[in-house]
Amino acid sequence: MARVFGGFRRHMWPILGQTTLDALRIVDWVIETHDLSSDVVAGGVSRGGDIAVALAGVDPRVKRVAAIVATPDWIRPGMTQVGRPEELFGQGSPSPYGDWLYTRLNPLTNPISYRPAPAASCELGGHDTHVPPTGAARFKEILATENPAAAENITITVHEGLDHLSAARNPKPEDRAFAWLMG
User: Fold this and answer.
1) Within 10 Å of residue 171's Cβ, how many Cβ atoms?
2) Contact 65, 119 (CB under 8 A)
3) What pLDDT, in 10s, does the model give residues 125-168?
4) pLDDT at res. 163
5) How many angstroms separate the CA atoms of 172 and 117, rounded?
6) DSSP per-residue codes, 30-91
7) Does the N-terminal or the C-terminal CB of the chain have fewer CB atoms within 10 Å?
8) Per-residue model confidence (pLDDT) at position 81
9) What is the number of helices (H) and of strands (E) in the chain?
10) ∠123-124-125 over CA atoms, to 5°?
11) How far apart, in whole angstroms, are the C-alpha atoms of residue 118 and residue 131?
């Protein structure tokens, strides 16, 4: 954890990007192995939610996404240390591999990838300074310009009074996310 958060862009961007690509392969395997339909839902908490949103941008079979305390903006402007909102996070520089993944998979900078307009629910903590809720709002604004249908399919719920950890552990955002995924 210290290594990844000590060089966020160098270490986290490859984790986000490679896991998104791995999830794409897992979706292939699950559909083929279990003879399922190609309508896929994806969800996750924090980094898992970041990955679920990115997956929806690379796999048009993803029809619904639920992201809890997650962001479509891998840069996370204003990000602070978990539990220490007064301590801004030094993100460092990406590796060439991390930069390549960011350039191709970061949702905020690839709005065209959301042309199929997957439905997304973002459950965010109003006092989350580690994954600021502003990232989801910026993503929706950018989509409104590039792809209004995709923007209309995004629901953002901000749970006031909850920071990153309390929102991630609170059953209300989790219950809402599961209900969303189930349709």
Assistant:
1) 8
2) yes
3) 999 999 999 999 999 999 999 899 999 999 999 999 999 999 99
4) 95
5) 26
6) HHHHHT--S-EEEEEETHHHHHHHHHHHH-TTEEEEEEES--S-TT-TT-EETTEEEEEPP-
7) N
8) 77
9) 8, 6
10) 140
11) 22
Structure tokens at 31: 């559909």
Domain harbouring 57, CATH code: 3.40.50.1820
Hey, is 142 helix, strand or coil? helix
Residue with tokens 């210290």: 2
CA atoms within 13 Å, Cβ hemisphere of 55: 30
Give the three-state DSSP class for 131: coil
The CA radius of gyration of the chain, in Å to the nearest whole number, is 16
Any idea what DSSP says for residue 94?
-
14-58 pLDDT, tens digit per residue, is 999 999 999 999 999 999 999 888 789 999 999 999 999 999 999
Tally of domains within the chain: 1
Structure tokens at 24: 């794409």
Beta strands 40-45; 62-68: pairing state: parallel
- Tokens representing residue 169 in the block: 């552990």
